[in-house]
Amino acid sequence: MRGEIARSVTPFLIGPTQRFLRHMEQIRSLAKVDRRQISEQVFAEIRPYLGSDDGDELQELRRRAQDQRAKLIYEGARHFADVQYAAVTMLEQWAIAKFELIVSRSALTHILAERRCKAVEDFLRDNLDELHL
What are the boundaries of each domain within the chain? Predict the structure, then answer.
């Protein structure tokens, strides 16, 4: 019974990470100037939280990013080719993943959160010359 539950829950947990990683590939295909702009915006937001283990601060960052994304959607942005939308979505996913790294009790959730954080941080490293995360 327990194995059946795990098999039925696993796709639910993995799906959002897989979608986000596909979106990251779309973002990587943007023009260099756009990738740089996205990287600068995301790094400016996450820099104060890189070494933080404060769950409340990360939750607040996530809420702000979700509010920004909702506003952009209301204004018509819905695609990762939109630099602002891409940046705020990356920010939101990084904040969620960083929080999950702190509070997660599940090995699978922890691994998936690591992948999302790494995807964002690798993107920043690849697009900001002076960045050493």
Answer: 2-127
